[in-house]
């Protein structure tokens, strides 16, 4: 999301004559975060969604460039060819082009569809300049927007985009716990647990005990334990044959956890505590605590299991 557009990307007339960082530029899906979201932290950024075959786009484009350049830095213009870069247009639900969106402080604040005459474009830009002049701050909103975008990308399986956004945030704020944790989760998602643990171990002291990092550390330790737990059917057979085989039940709990069966894993550990809470130096209770760390304190399963565990311990 933050890479430089290809050298052969089509250039508008104004963008071709402008240097890097000037007021009008061509961009892409991958550069959208840097060129639009990040840039709009301090100045409104107008995004022109266009395509080479679109007649009205050819009418509107030069007008937008002219008015933006006349504003002398009060706004910027980013042009995105939707044929080459369909992702952002799709996310913004652009149905037809030309489509124009204005971003300020990391979020869309205005826009219009179709080709407008120069007078209306001027009014549009003046409205944005006035909005920027009356607004203050916005850095916190921008950060939250970026973190939300990264989380959505990771949840959607787009590890590359998520890691790029988290990386950009960490360049600006090396001790941002949410971004640091997010980047580690990207490594885990990519099955690079070695680098994930290295990064976790090297976490800045100021954030090392953040709840997100504590959760990740517990999750990694549980995953390592679960990898050696054994096949579920065999362990279930052992437990069925001997209900007091606590080691088999403990291994079953870890195997269930590895399979994503969190509730069943919790139930197995609770049953060990119920039958023999002191077994193996309270291993089942301690493992439940590690589960709670991995799930997070507000997870419904954590809350429910804490109640059940207390009921068993104090009955």
UniProtKB/TrEMBL annotation:
A cellular-component GO term for this protein: cytosol
Transmembrane regions listed in the UniProt entry: none
Domain Thioredoxin: 3-130
Keywords annotated in UniProt: Disulfide bond, Electron transport, Redox-active center, Transport
Protein name: Co-chaperone YbbN
CDD domains xrefs: ybbN
GO molecular function: protein-disulfide reductase activity
One of the GO BP terms on file: cell redox homeostasis
Pfam families found in the cross-reference section: Thioredoxin, TPR_19, TPR_20
Gene3D superfamilies named in the record: Glutaredoxin, Tetratricopeptide repeat domain
UniProt entry tagged with the keyword Coiled coil: no
Entry-linked InterPro entries: Thioredoxin-like_sf, Thioredoxin_CS, Thioredoxin_domain, TPR-like_helical_dom_sf
Superkingdom of the organism of origin: Bacteria
